[in-house]
Amino acid sequence: MAAYALPALYAVLVWWFSTGLILLLDHRPRATHAASMVAGTGALALALWAIGASAGDASEGGAYTAFTAALLVWGWQEMSYYMGFVSGPRPVGCPAGARGFARFRAAAATSLWHEAAIVAGFLAILALTWGAPNRFALWTYLILWGMNLSARLNLFLGVRNLNVEFLPEHLAYLRSYLRTRAMNPLFPVSVAAAGLATGGLVLAALGEGASAHEVAGLSILATLMALATLEHGFLMLPLPSAALWQWSLPKIARAGPAAAPIPASCGEGAHLGEPCLAEIEGR
Question: How many independent structural domains does the chain possess?
Answer without folding.
Answer: 1
